[in-house]
Amino acid sequence: MVMFGIDLVLLIPALMISATPVLLAAIGEAVVEKSGVLNLGVEGMMITGAVIGFIIAVNTQIPIYGFICAAFAGALLSIIFAILTQYMMSNQVATGLGLTMVGLGLSALIGKPYEGIKSPTLTKLEIPILSDIPILGPMIFSHDAIVYFSIFVIASVAFIIKKTRIGLILRAVGENQDAAHALGYKVIRIRFIAIMFGGATAGIGGAYISLARVPQWTEGMTAGAGWIALALVVFASWKPWRVLVGAYLFGGITVLQLNLQAIGVAIPVEILSMSPYLVTIVVLVGISLFGHQTAPGSLARPFHASQ
Amino acid sequence: MKFKSILTGVLLAFGLGTAAIAADVKVGFVYVGPIGDGGWTYEHDKGRLAVEKHFGDRVETIYQENVPEGADAERVMTTMAMQGADLIFTTSFGYMDPTINVAKKFPNVKFEHATGYKRSDNVSTYSARFYEGRAIQGHIAGKMTKTNKVGYIASFPIPEVIRGINSAYIHAKKVNPNIEFNIIWVYTWFDPAKEADAAKALIDQGADVVLQHTDSTAPQAAAKEAGNVITFGQASDMGEYAPMPRVSSIIDDWAPYYVARTQAVLDGSWESVDTWDGIGPGMVGIGEISDAVPADVKAEALAMRDAIANGTYHPFTGPIKKQDGSDWLGAGETSDDGTLLGMNFYVEGITAEVPQ
Amino acid sequence: MIKLEKRRTISKLWTGLTPLIAVFLTMLFGGLMFGLLLGDLSSAFGAIKLIFWDPLFDENFASYARPQLLVKAGPIILIAIGLSIGFKAGIWNIGAEGQYILGAIFGASVALSLFPHESIFIFPAMVLAGAFGGFIWALIPAVLKVYFKTNEILVSLMLVYVAENILASVSQGLLRNPDGMGFPGSRNLKDYPSAHNSEIITNSGMHWGVLTAFLSVILAYFLFLKHQKGYEIRITGEAPKAAYFAGINPSKTIIFCMGMSGLLAGMAGLFEVAGPAGQITISFNSGYGFTAIIVAFLGRLNPLGILMAGLLMALTYIGGEIAQLMLGLPGASIQLLQGMLLFFLLATDIFTNYSFKTRGS
Hints:
heterotrimer; A: mainly alpha; ABC transporter involved in vitamin B12 uptake, BtuC; two-stranded antiparallel sheet; globular; C: mainly alpha; 71% helix; 3% strand
């Protein structure tokens, strides 16, 4: 299905693959921020997931193990952040930045022996019947497991936050930590779990870059994906399905501009290259104009039970 | 380093202590990327290792990777010089001004700047005629493509890259008049994720050959996944992707040059020169052409390689017109180095425009 | 059972002690890390000495390294001071890197358009242009926040990427050196005396940017301690509702804080491009805008603290480079070391703000 010279059957899958890492990281961070914590260390957790996932996949030759270990690695790293910010009351912005630095440095060190090595890649899943639908089949139903997993995570988070008691508690803790505490909810414990969840998804997202998108390991290979994820959370107004839209939009424009260049469209390259970021700003302003951002009320405020 | 000190200790103990525990010459290397990039910096480091192997204890090498261009580069070079380096290789165009500046402060230290154009009494420049390798790639691409679309992942619109595009295009077009080049500018020398995306976009647009002027193996991996797309290794052989998609490669072989220059410093015969070597002197290597290439094409490619190597064929031989239709080279006329060095125009037939 | 109780006033003793403890812990654990990387602990100690001690005091290096500390710390401190103004008010300018780039571009453009005329007015004009460039780049997120309530973290961050693309574009087009053989990159300002940001005292490393950084520390100190504006900023950050009731105009505060931080970042960019870097190139920016965020926090958003933290950070960079060169340590280990330093400071900070009390006392 070709539109303006670009085959959508090829563009849509490429966009989905490009967006999946930030999608995963962003949904995790959205949960974290919903609980009232701002973790700027997404980049560090992603790259740690990328390196650990790569190492395990190369050593076991089974990519899925890589992803599982990446999730653990991301969660473990986030525990440092959790302890510092929740128990030791450190400034969240600074701690998050420190986490990024530690993650980048640590991953580069661990990954040194693995530079230039090939890893086993994920196979695309063929879903009986659905994959064979013309146009939609190859477009949406022929992806690898992680792409589907990422959509599943979005759906689950959306459901849990809106419809379950846990989701309500999470939101309460994020909106008004003191009131939640007064009601008997364990603010710190809930935030701890949220932070770990964010770490795990960021880890999986990072591993997707090193195992599926590229696939290779090089130091610093996330190249700012963590920051994009953070931006997407705000862009999505902390709503799960909007995270998906935002990620696909951003990934879509990134992939689209490359395709436009490939066709030879006469727009200057730098403008095409800037376009994902400009579009994000424009859409964000639009959202701010027509709705209002509902940041969780207690976002980035340290909680200290004082009684 | 620790092993070395144990060894010399043992030798001394046995009265076999060599007089030259300290090396005669210290050679420094400044790298713009990581030595594990599998491309540009990796090959420079191989050159360094070759120097170490060739000279043994007479030469000590030091290096630093991931040095940003600008003030940091100047500081690293200065520190190397202060530590007693006699010869310093600076392996990126962006190190040009820092190299000249530091060279002024250390007139007794020799500097070798890769791909630059400024020299001084103690600064030489060197580069490789990569376009010779591109000619061979273009020929193979033109012959093997079924879709007549060649994708080119270009880094920055500098003469070296434009030269490569032109050379590949000329030779692809010669054997395939219907050939079309799609060019994506990624504005980086090394970014695996971006390169993978660019390769996919080109393949999605119908290219079944992907050429790259970026350093990672990501495009090869993307091509492998797509299947039926051929690629060429860049800067290093990338042989792990042979025989498909990588059907050949351009290999930067700096070792002969590095050894020769180090020898010149040892002999005291070092002088500032500008070196632009190609396939002939061995600076540009053509990687093993795989069996995926039909035998006749392979033979032609090898013949072209040999002709370029012994000087009987120049990749930029007219008649060639510039993209805007104006004349450039007449029939049989070959381009002079000056034009090539400052090349900022496409040849006739390429439909895109050079950025800016 | 041990409980944490928030102190009523920040402990002065611990404020001074924690950085020392943090540095000590960093040396300890950093040393362990180097030991693991190098294979033995004695060279680990040597590595720590190379990083923290030698650049300052070693007879071979220090005379070169000490001025380099100023060169490296200057722009970072300048940007960090600007950022701290905003951070204190809860206004998060994450896009200083972009403002730095725009300042450099504006300033360099002034110089390149006047080339080759010589005049003492050129350099001051460049500084103003640089400040202006950074200022308007920061104004975009500020205005969007004031009028549309758009989050400034996101906008300022996105604008960093936009700025990098603009930099690439001008390096190859508008500002490209006509004598440069077609290569990207502007003329080198070191060859243009009127425009060159030279050292005020030769070989001291102290160029106009470093001087400005020191001045900014002093000015910021007085701003926060004595000036009404500084008081307003602190209140906006610490107690927004109180600020509102006190009649402090939040819009003006936002514009002031973002504008100032952009202005200072832009100046830092100008001083860097006219000085140590020399030319506008595609890869001109080296992350100072982000390092400055860390330094701002390391310095606890206090001008004098930022000065010290900036110098300490520069020490780890310079010393780290030497350690890499002489010991073959990977660059990533230095980054890890810096992250450790930040973590330890954040962890020990708990003693400054909270005290331990045992229950039942």
